[in-house]
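Cross-posting from the chemistry board since nobody answered there.

I work mostly on the small-molecule side, so proteins are not my area. We synthesized zinc ion and want a rough idea of how it might sit in this target. Sequence and SMILES are below. Is it possible to get a predicted 3D structure of the two together?
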Amino acid sequence: MKPSDAGQPEPRLPPPPPQPPPPAQEPVHAPSGAAAVFRIAVPTSFAMGATNAYLIPGPEPVLVDPGVRTPEALRALEAGLAAYGTSIKAMRGVIVTHGHLDHFGLARAVRNRSGARVYAHRYDARVCEGFPDSVRKANVRYREFSLRLGFPPELYGRMETAYARTFEMAEGVPVDVELSDGDLVPAGGREWRVLHTPGHTPGSICLLNEELGLLLSGDTVLRDITPNPFFGGHSHNSSMGLGAYLQSLGRLEGLGQVKTLPGHGPVVEDLPGVLASTRRHHAEREGRILALLRAEGPLDAFQVSGRIFAELPVSQVWLAFAEVVGHLEVMEAAGTVVRTGGGGQGGEAGAASGAGTAGGTSPGEAVRFAAAG
Ligand SMILES: [Zn+2]
Ligand SMILES: [Zn+2]
């Protein structure tokens, strides 16, 4: 099959950013009834809407994920904190759940005003500290990786141009405390345990306080959106991280029923239910991809993405592609899919290393995938 036969829709330019909903604030009650954490919706211009910043009040008040760096976001954060009788200046800590700019964008502004210590997992700390150069450098590798798997260079260039405007939406921030799994972070007079849950990013964390029965989940668990794995499993960015993400879900499944405060959207009252539906979503998508490859394979990942997803705005074409690559990697590791083409890079090599397509691919020839057997 020629790439021109793939039938992928011509992507459109992104629509104007939707108006963010009005800032919303709410106390989040622990199962005991105490208002333990306060949610502040910090607007973004991104499709997923506002980021949730969380204030953990108490003797050492801490802000989790202050949000994106725009004047509107800063105003919403200030207003939210004022509504709870505090201010940016009073913060003693800023915890960043992962190195995405809609979460850490304002961390430096908060640190500058308050002297708060900034906490982030060590795998994402470099991204936050070196922003935006850290992201620019990573993008060179993402581009290479994506093109090798069939993403069209011209489309990638357009996406990069569209993305470049977001570099204004965060500042690099020194990370004062680098976190690892199991660390205890003081916040509001209690200690919160760090759960390293890689997948969405390499250094994604959740924060658990068992006494309160609350979990802060960043983007690892969202109620109404399936989180996207972004090169999340490995710091060397040679695979998409869905496999690591599914392992992280397994870890959270072990927590049972715990009230979960996500990075976007409403509080999750039924964590096991949301995790189960995320797993179902992935299993169904794998089934569709396998059926497609049986019927029409071998195909490259971009071709698969064009068949699985309906017409998407350009800003979302890469996200859809990334999800498909993640599935193909997981299926390859499970032995249901093999690599073919792409300059003779055998399926065995990729599957055995679990590390994607490191080396050996001829320029211009995308790796393709076929159903095994
Ligand atoms: Zn994120
Ligand atoms: Zn996010």
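Reply from a structural biologist on the board:
Welcome over. Reading the output above for you: Residues 1-16, 343-361 have pLDDT under 50 and may be disordered. The chain has two domains: 3-9+285-371, 25-132+167-278. Happy to explain the token format if needed.
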